[in-house]
Design goal:
Layout lengths: L2 H14 L2 H8 L3 H15 L4 E3 L4 E3 L1 H26 L6 E7 L1 H8 L3 H7 L3 E7 L13 E5 L7 E8 L2 E5 L1 H6 L14 E4 L7 E6 L2 E6 L5 E2 L2 H9 L4 E5 H10 L3 E3 L4 E3 L6 E7 L6 H13 L11
Parallel strand pairs: 3-4, 3-5, 8-11, 8-12
Antiparallel strand pairs: 1-2, 5-15, 6-15, 7-12, 7-13, 9-10, 9-14
């Protein structure tokens, strides 16, 4: 039995007036209560209770100890009740991380709906194109694009979103339409930043992998930068449909190389919702996960027009 449990036991004994009454409250024998009080007194090096066969009385040390522990135990009881209430009524700050483009274009527009459902919550949305350590950065939930591998994280697939080779009608009016991945070497390709001198785009069709080294006049670690370049007719980009779905739908961008699965990185095109792996997930985190799963389900505007 730890110190807190000993303090609670001592208070029950005093309030109940006997060892047996305290034992009945917590479902143990008077002998177990007796041993607990003895252990507390031994740890303190003083006698707290004068015990006779007929009654218990507090010693001077016992009176002082009782006066000090009562507000402590009351504060702990109130704290436990307040913490427990968080699992009934969500309150506090939810810290969320996402990539810049995804956060701006997809997550931020949904947050007002989430917050209107749970007015006791505040969201701290952090956007960056580098993954953050959830523990070090005190992040509750992260939305990550592409493969996530970590035994310390709880990972759940949120939604899939194809990556599409695309260009504006204006660019295609000035340049031949690529018929196969190898044709891209003759085009101005707008690429994500690569540690290599020449980025590689990978294509899969009928189980056959094709890799193409592409180059162009614009490189960035931000997908929105590449999207705007493509919209302005600067060149060909390889972007996810969550970023360019409406542009494909209204024709301001045109999907190229149909039948190919394409990627500038790995072929996992899913978006994952990631949290720390814990025994007891907070209510605010679970509610946000449920909200995202419902909100992103079957996104029709992410589909490539036929």
């Amino acid at each position: 039995m730890d110190t807190l449990a000993h303090m609670q036991l001592f208070l029950r004994v005093v309030q109940g007036g006997s060892l047996s009454a305290a034992g009945r409250q917590i479902g143990v024998s008077p002998a177990s209560v007796f041993r607990g009080i003895n252990a507390l007194e031994d740890s303190l090096g003083v006698r707290l209770l004068n015990r006779t066969s007929r009654k218990l009385t507090l010693t001077e040390a016992g009176q002082l100890y009782l006066a000090r522990i009562e507000p402590i135990l009351s504060e702990i009881e109130g704290l436990n009740a307040e913490i427990g209430q968080l699992q009934v009524t969500p309150r506090g700050t939810l810290r969320v991380h996402a990539r810049m483009s995804f956060g701006n274009r997809q997550l931020a527009p949904r947050l007002p709906d989430f917050l209107s459902q749970y007015p006791g919550l505040c969201v701290d949305l952090r956007l960056s194109d580098r993954p953050l350590d959830l523990v070090d950065e005190n992040i509750d939930v992260a939305l990550r694009v592409g493969e996530v591998n970590s035994p310390s994280l709880m990972i759940r697939k949120l939604v899939s979103s194809r990556r599409v080779v695309c260009a504006s009608p204006a660019y295609l009016a000035r340049n031949p339409i690529p018929e196969r991945p190898e044709d891209l070497t003759e085009h101005n390709c707008l690429t994500f930043y690569s540690e290599f001198n020449q980025p590689i785009w990978r294509f899969m069709k009928d189980g056959e992998l094709t890799e193409c080294r592409v180059r162009g006049s614009l490189q960035s670690d931000g997908g929105d930068v590449l999207r705007l370049g493509a919209l302005k007719g600067l060149g060909i980009a390889l972007l996810p449909t969550w970023n360019i779905g409406p542009d494909l739908e209204d024709g301001t961008l045109v999907a190229l190389l149909p039948g190919y699965q394409a990627t500038p990185f790995g072929f996992d095109d899913s978006i994952y919702i990631v949290t720390q792996k814990v025994r007891h997930r907070s209510l605010k985190v679970q509610l946000f996960i449920d909200f995202c799963l419902k909100s992103f389900r079957d996104r029709q505007d992410w589909k490539v027009p036929a």
